[in-house]
Amino acid sequence: MIKIYQRLWQVNWAEQWQYRANLLMYSLYGLVSPVVYLAVWTTIANSQGSVSGLTANDFITYYLTLLIVDQLTSDITIHILANKIQDGTLAGDLLRPAHPVLTSTLVYNIAFKALSFIVLIPVWIILVLLFQPNFGMVTPGSLLLSIPTLLFGFAINFLFGATLTSLAFWTTRVYSVSEFFGALVVLFSGQFVPLQLMPPAIQTVAQYLPFQLFKFVPIEIILNKLSPETIARDFVAYLVWFVILFLIFRWTWREGIKRFSAVGA
Amino acid sequence: MRIFQLLSALFKINVQMTLAYRLDTLVNILLNLFWLGWELLGLNIIFSNTKSLGGWGFGELIALLGVFRLVNALMAALIMPNTQQFNTAVRDGTLDYTLLQPVNSMFLVTFSRMVIWRVWDLLLGAILIIVGMQLSGSKENLFGLLSFLLLATTGSIILYSLWIVMIAATFWFIKFDNNVTMLDALLSTGRYPVTIYPIWLRVIVTFVVPVAVATTVPLQALRGDLNGLQVLLYAGISLVAFLVATRMWKAGVRHYSGASS
Q: Does any CB of chain A come closer than 8 Å to the CB of residue B192?
């Protein structure tokens, strides 16, 4: 099994290394929206001192951390897998004696992530120099605590994306469905604004959804903003959602495969 | 005159293509409405925490969102689909057939695909602008209104010209799939007034990829921030940009050697 992953990693890394220049351009997409929101909220914070207790520096550190966290927990399964299901090339993958999503799709995801992360670092350093944040509240302990949340955040996001992509077995409009959920993620994950600035109703809903585990929770843990009780509760949430989404994915995939009839010989 | 005939022919073809996918159109419009609700909620969250954003009120930001939607429609309805088609055509040589047509090739390449349902976005944008300006309660005068219309047009021409320059560069680089990525990625800065951005970003979206010229600037005219000279200056820039773009396109076509046969 380890051998399979090793081989897949070599292949995927070599393949994607060819596209490193493209990656640099595509990383722009992920960069612009956090910088825009950063500008919006620091403008407001500067004009009135603070927003609900958050200073300009709080917003700068939040969005700069978001850039990193977002990169680490993001998932691109739909772009790898959906067209394979639709045009039938998945048939070839299904013949192999390993789960196609949990092996090649997952490794592709991680290789892409590793490369885009390398691309992001210099850009991120430039942004840090431009915005001059004070990261004084970050400690080795908070960074250490964030590692499991980042790992599980990605795992949950990946399972969520894989489940959504599996809907391609039933509908051709899987990209529209994914766009709809994408908007929900932006809202409930803390991508748009730190969740504590949201209307109370949205905050309550966010508590019961897995999306804040992708971004908001890891960011707040890195920035040392959460109490030990909250952190403990969030860790439980990670485990619970991991199990739930794993079961949902397994079921959807199994039912989807049954319906799958590949086109072409 | 012939240009208009062609345009209406291309429009009809694209309407027919859209009609083949009616349900998709409906789904797209529903998603679009959903995003609108999302954007309004976003503005609402911002303004529940403050009274003004860099001197701009709630109504003015709604109007800006309307202008942004117009520019976004230009991007999504024309620029993205035609670029995709063009990039493939340069690489596999099918562009030859386009160049052989007895029509201005720049026109044909940039208008052959239209995402018809985006017409809806134009309508929505116009409504947002009107409602937003009503909400802001500012008194528009005729000069402001005329210069708004002029600057919205010239801003779009500037973006269109930049697009031409970028895709013309493909004639030299052949594999230049990212020719509009910069423009597309930076477009979302147009949702908010450019004056709130740090200076380096302001320089980028004003001079390098002039998204702000098509979004913030027209609205500044409507707010009465600009004088006649500035309006004329922008109009002049758009004219120059368009001329440069046409030149570049012609040079590109001359350099293009075809990939087929």
A: yes
Query: Contact B192/A52, CB-based, under 8 Å?
Result: no
- Give the bridge partners for A54, in sequence order: A51
The owner of tokens 């609402």 is B44
Alpha-carbon gap: B46 to the closest alpha carbon of chain A (Å): 8
Choose the closest CB to A43 out of B35, B186, B196.
B196
* Contact check, Cβ <8 Å, A26/B42: no
* Ranges of each domain in chain B: 2-255
Q: Chain A within 8 Å of B37 (Cβ-Cβ)?
A: no
| Domain segments of chain A as ranges | 2-259
CA-nearest of B70, B81, B79 to B153 is B70
Backbone angles phi, psi at A54, to 5 degrees: -95, 125
Are the beta carbons of A116 and A199 closer than 8 angstroms? no
Complex ipTM value: 0.87
Helices within chain A (DSSP H only): 2-17, 20-48, 56-73, 77-87, 90-94, 106-131, 140-166, 174-188, 200-207, 216-222, 228-259
Tell me which DSSP letter residue B208 carries. Answer: I
Assigned token pair, B41? 């909620």
Query: What is chain B's pLDDT, residue by residue, as a tens digit (261 residues)?
Result: 788 888 899 999 999 988 888 888 888 888 888 889 988 999 999 998 888 898 899 999 999 999 999 999 999 999 999 998 888 888 888 888 888 888 888 888 899 888 888 888 999 999 999 999 888 877 767 888 889 999 999 999 999 999 999 888 888 876 677 778 888 889 999 999 999 999 999 999 999 899 999 999 999 988 888 888 999 999 999 999 999 999 999 999 888 876 654
Q: Which residues of A touch B196 (CB under 8 A)?
A: 39-40, 43
Partner A contacted by B40 (CB < 8 A): no
